[in-house]
Amino acid sequence: MTPLRAVALAAGLAVVALPTNGQAQRPKSLAPEEVARAVIRADSSGDWATLLGLAHPEALARFRAIHVFQLRLLSAGDAAAVDSTAVDTAATDSTIEVRWERSRQEHERFILDSMFQVPTVDSLAHTSPDTVFARWTRETRRLSAGDSTRPMTPTRPTWQVIGTVRASDTLAYVVMERAVVQPLGQMPEMFRDFPHDTRDAEVMVLRRVGREWRSMLDGLGEPFVFGAFREGME
User: Is the dihedral of CA 128, 130, 132, 134 positive or negative?
Assistant: First the structure.
């Protein structure tokens, strides 16, 4: 276990055992739905340390693998190949290709330097999954707040846990629900007959690690892909 994960586990699941007959009791492990509620609270408040402590090791490894794959795909991208099915033949113009390549390089450097703080994609692939998740989550929360130098303002959790299905002793599914934010003002005529959902549901997968339940990080509010932060670079 890395020092970072040890600190996060202590912050995320600090359970005080009450002494009985002069001896401390063994802390009781949290039920899947309790872990899910803790994940929701940590995600809403931007508490990346607690979120890290509640994450399953496989979820963290998958998180790193997704970003390594995306960056390698970005590095191998070809302007003509990317645009050939999306735009007309003007996309092959050399000026457009040069601009696309410059934009791609800037985006890649932004992700590596600012988000993950590593020099290359290979370096990222060999960085601890705990560190990768912590750096990404911390920076995305700050960027979402509109100021990378200030912590994210906590928000009230929108997800509510409504039930748990235990598939086995090591696998559980926690069902969450939230109200769908409705548009303000009068709906445009062309959308008035379009079906509008009022409730949204999501399933969080939890797996056991020893005696403890850990989240696979499904249904969190922040995106796990880096495309959402491209706009700030334009």
Answer: negative
